[in-house]
Write a structure and sequence with these properties.
The protein is an all-alpha fold. 52% of the residues lie in helices and 0% in strands. The longest helix is centred in the C-terminal third of the chain and has 31 residues. The protein is elongated. It starts with a helix and ends with a helix. 18% of the residues are buried. Bound molecules: zinc ion.
Length: 124
């Protein structure tokens, strides 16, 4: 599995096979259901206390990137001139994508510090 594919599907950065979260982003069972260890190879995701505080910066960057992308899309369609339309479109995009951005930011943050190991990825 490629790096980008494993990020988009919220997989473990070490093996790119196990899922980092017990539930999918839009599941009502809990968007914050981060596994303590990889279900595939039991890699610990908690490298130090409060490890995932840094994912807030990633989440912020993803939110800004999404807002810019929506605004550019609105400009291309011809709706970007209206400030109210732009505001509500960007707000709606951020609210709708918030659960996915929450989980994706934690996966991206963990992948900064947990390196991919192709040897354990092939073990099943
Ligand atoms: Zn893993």
């Amino acid at each position: 599995m490629s790096f980008v594919h494993s990020l988009l599907f919220l997989c473990c950065p070490k093996c790119r096979t196990g899922k980092m979260f017990r539930h999918k982003p839009y599941s009502f069972k809990g968007v914050t259901s981060l596994n303590k260890r990889c279900p595939h190879f039991s890699t610990s995701y908690q490298l130090e206390p409060s490890f995932f505080y840094g994912s807030m910066y990633v989440s912020y960057a993803l939110g800004v990137a999404l807002a810019v992308a929506v605004y550019v899309l609105l400009l291309l369609v011809g709706l970007g001139e209206n400030g109210r339309t732009s505001f509500f479109a960007i707000a709606a995009a951020i609210v709708v994508s918030a659960p996915y951005i929450y989980q994706l930011s934690k996966v991206i943050w963990a992948s900064f510090f947990i390196k991919y190991d192709p040897k354990i990825s092939n073990k099943n």
